[in-house]
Sequence to fold (175 residues):
Amino acid sequence: MDFLSFKDHLAVRTPLAAKALRMPASLADIQRLEADLGCELGTHLRNLLLSNDGAADDTGRFLPGGYRLLGCREIAEQHEMLCTVLDELGERMIGHWWHPQWVPFAIHVAANCLFVDMRDTDERGRVGEFLHDARAVGAWPNLPAMFAETSHALRSGTAVRDHVPVVVEGEITWE
Fold:
């Protein structure tokens, strides 16, 4: 499922969460982000940002586990901060704790984030979950799979990675 289909579903099921989405990023914003990151974003992440440049706080935490989509500027800032910490931790933590070619695209209030793996490996395009006090773990094979599973959970009330969506008055929380 692409993000536009997910966004339409979000607007129907959780209109307050859908209103938290920001305007689309510009092509210039995306090119600047790719230059800052030193890697391409990939088709799915690029299309996500061309649809919406992240989501506002509070009602924008509509992804499983309470993650909020980041905009281009926030992605660059989060990536820079994580790479700075990685440099301090040393080479042995590359790919275990964080990798410079992992692109954060959603953040949790506990400083964890979801990322897209942009390394030139079999893992390219995989969505992972970065847990700041542990190691990164795999989550979905790609962004469309994440949006499809999340959309299904919103329709059925089923859990996504141990998080159950609760929709109250157009707003979503994950328990």
About this structure: Residues 72-89 form the longest helix (18 residues). Helices lie at 3-13, 15-19, 27-37, 43-51, 72-89, 143-156. The chain has a mean pLDDT of 92.
